[in-house]
Amino acid sequence: KNQVEQSPQSLIILEGKNCTLQCNYTVSPFSNLRWYKQDTGRGPVSLTIMTFSENTKSNGRYTATLDADTKQSSLHITASQLSDSASYICVVSAGGNNRLAFGKGNQVVVIP
Amino acid sequence: DAGVIQSPRHEVTEMGQEVTLRCKPISGHNSLFWYRQTMMRGLELLIYFNNNVPIDDSGMPEDRFSAKMPNASFSTLKIQPSEPRDSAVYFCASSLGPVLAQYFGPGTRLLVL
């Protein structure tokens, strides 16, 4: 069973609308959680990195939240733009050995 | 800065051939990572180096895969012999440290026939 589960698998939203992507993990002990954006045909780009003590981190219109108690994270996209169409990957790092566990990604399509 | 540089960008080869992928990390970055991405399995970490030393190679699928980092500005991932199931996009990433933000290269799209 994958240690990082993302939902929804895919999402279509209208330009200008908000959306929220979910990431649930079982990795333990926890070190940090990262969200990446990957455009089609490109390498992933880091959006946020959060450690155990951080609840919220923003990067422009992207806001990530972390609840280390329930082992859940979300990525909120505000006022979506066509350029937000991409795959969003949640990556959780285990404490100690920094072993990485990857989600399969949320595929977001923004339509005009 | 040019970012992480990977070559070749595309590689098509026949089963049994040796494949060598190359990566130049961002100057000053101490950590280098090799990933593989497929539709079925998503993104997988193969190996990472810190200060040119392999730290975790538990993701390397089998002995056909090997990686080296002879100096701070160059790394290779070699597959010998290649098999069709090795077809994937291989990414190299670098960072200032193993827990810091990683910067990915454009990837090498490998197709093994």
Question: So how many helices of chain A?
Answer: 0
What is the element string of chain B, with H for helices and E for strands?
EEEEEEEEEEE
DSSP strand content of chain B: over 45%
The total strand number of chain A stands at 11
Oligomer: heterodimer
- How many E-type strands of chain B? 11
Determine the most extensive contact between two protein chains: A-B, 20 and 19 residues
Biggest sheet overview of chain B: 7 strands, mixed
Q: Helix/strand-derived class of chain B? A: mainly beta
The tally of helices of chain B reads: 0
Summed over residues and divided by their number, the pLDDT of chain B gives a mean of 94
Shape estimate of chain B = globular
What does this structure look like?
The complex is a heterodimer of chains A (112) and B (113). Chain A has 112 residues and is mostly beta strands. Helices cover 0% and strands 59% of the residues of chain A. In chain A, strand 4 (30-38) and strand 5 form a beta hairpin. Chain A is globular and about 45 Å long. Helix content of chain B is 0%, strand content 55%. In chain B, a hairpin with a 7-residue loop joins strand 9 and strand 10 (103-104). Chain B is built from no helices and 11 strands. The mean pLDDT of chain B is 94. Chain B has strands spanning 5-7, 10-13, 19-24, 31-38, 42-50, 53-56, 65-71, 74-79, 88-95, 103-104, 108-112. In chain B, strands 2, 4, 5, 6, 9, 10 and 11 form a 7-stranded mixed sheet that branches. Chain B is globular. Chain B starts with a strand and ends with a strand. Chain B is mostly beta strands. Chains A and B meet through strand 4, strand 5 and strand 9 of A and strand 5 and strand 10 of B.
